[in-house]
Design a protein that fits this description.
The chain has 205 residues and is mainly α. It has one domain: Cytochrome c oxidase, subunit III, four-helix bundle (Four Helix Bundle (Hemerythrin (Met), subunit A)). Helix content is 71%, strand content 0%. It contains six helices and no strands. Helix 1 runs antiparallel to helix 5, helix 1 runs parallel beside helix 6 and helix 2 packs antiparallel against helix 4.
Length: 205
């Protein structure tokens, strides 16, 4: 037999919270699902890269040079360092500190834009065109896949920052910022195996 609190009608949901954060929010699960789908795309692209590498007597194939390390190293360092302000965003959302959420989200917008600069130079120093051969195609596929995620998340962060500075922040907005911050963590972590394939694998042979 179901217990009913005094004065409450059976089926009355008015006492439940109107919003939630983390795993209690359906959007959080949608974000996890999206990252799983995108992660699968990265795995398939990486698998293609490894297959082509296994079929080639030399890697990169003769006539190609490995990508330059300088700009890739600068980008990787900057991306890893971005995890620090991203953690500030996460803490601010969980404290529901509106001022800190505004400032930290704006900072992440600036960082996202700044990271596109070394990424642009990085693409210019891959030392192969995408149409040159299979190596060039799979290398550019990995780089463009990851770059598209940076641009997507940066755009989302910019829109959030604009909204946060022009509207009152409620529980739903705190949850949205947290989801965006989680996605940036995915962008950072997914780059590590890709960077190993792009920069280390050609130098291991």
């Amino acid at each position: 037999m179901t217990d009913v609190l005094p004065g409450r009608v059976v089926g009355d949901l008015s006492h439940l919270p109107e919003s939630a954060m983390g795993a209690r929010n359906i959007v959080w699960w949608g974000n996890i699902g999206f990252m799983a789908i995108e992660g699968t795309a990265f795995v398939l692209a990486a698998g293609t890269y490894l297959y082509l590498m296994s079929q080639s007597p030399a890697w990169p194939p003769h006539g190609n040079r490995a990508p330059d390390l300088l700009w890739g190293g600068i980008f990787t360092a900057g991306l890893l360092l971005s995890a620090i302000p991203n953690a500030w965003v996460m803490r601010a959302t969980r404290r529901k500190d509106a001022k800190a959420v505004r400032r930290s989200t704006l900072l992440m917008s600036v960082i996202g834009a700044a990271l596109l600069i070394p990424r642009g130079f990085e693409l210019a120093h891959l030392n192969v065109d995408w149409y040159h051969d299979a190596y060039g195609s799979v290398l550019w596929m990995l780089m463009i896949l990851h770059t598209s995620h940076i641009i997507t998340d940066w755009g989302d962060t910019c829109v959030q920052a604009l909204w946060l500075y022009t509207h009152r922040i409620g529980d739903d907005q705190f949850a949205d910022v947290e989801d965006n911050s989680n996605y940036w963590t995915f962008v950072v972590l997914s780059w590590l195996p890709i960077a190993a394939l792009v920069y280390l694998a050609p130098r291991m042979g």
